[in-house]
Amino acid sequence: MMTPIPDWMNSINEMDDQEFQRWSRLLKQRTGMDVKYARKSFLTTGVRLRMRELGFTSYNDYYQHLLSGRKGKIEWTTLVDRLTIHETRFLRHPGSIKLLTELFLPEYRIDEDHLQAWSVGCATGEESYTLAIALDDYLKRSQRNVYYGVVGSDISLPALAKARKGIYDAHRIKNLPQQHINRYLSKKENGQYQVEKALRERVCFNLLNLLEMDQDVIHKMDIVFCQNVLIYFDKDLRYTILDELVKHINPGGLLVIGVGEAINWKNPHMQRLHGYDALAYTKESSDEQ
Question: What region holds the CheR-type methyltransferase domain (predicted)?
């Protein structure tokens, strides 16, 4: 017998246009995410579901709760997690990884025998671990004794918690070659896969709001991947974020962004790389920024 649905779950009114504008403004002010009216149902559904979980029936009461000090800040991280899409997988963009290992790395001069990569908007960590696998495999095949590390950053604390565990359903790893699955992941009794400890130790994850990059201590990186992230922002903010990312790339370093996410973006310090069905740039050798 099905459990009756509580009356309060059905007592939340539809979000009218004025309410939608208020919520979309808050989201843009705090995260930069630009939710257009065409995606009103997406925002409404996410907010309503979270309200039902907490027992709120008034949009205003929940809105004020989000503004109420420490508890509000904690709840905000949960709501943002619900409003961001984490559907991703290992080796989601094979062309980007091929460009990294076949075009960029063979020509890149690695300083001080260490290589640092950054996965921006890493969600639950699949891209971060994909980068670690690509770097580890390339360095072993080329017999280069280089220490490497990968940083994954995201605005969602729940997503980062999942990333640190490195446990994934089988469909998330289906794009990986079998030899990489055998080498870098282990199958659990429940059919899920976990990234091997040695690889997990090369990847760290941190909380980052892209609107606040200038307030965070971010070391210079050799490789920056920012794919399927800029779609959340309007064009001007996309360009601003990319210009800020450039400041954190070593001379000669690589920036890879999602195909179609910022086609007309130009930066005087960056040069476009072509091919491999990827949108990528390298930074000029002399760092004058």
Answer: 8-286
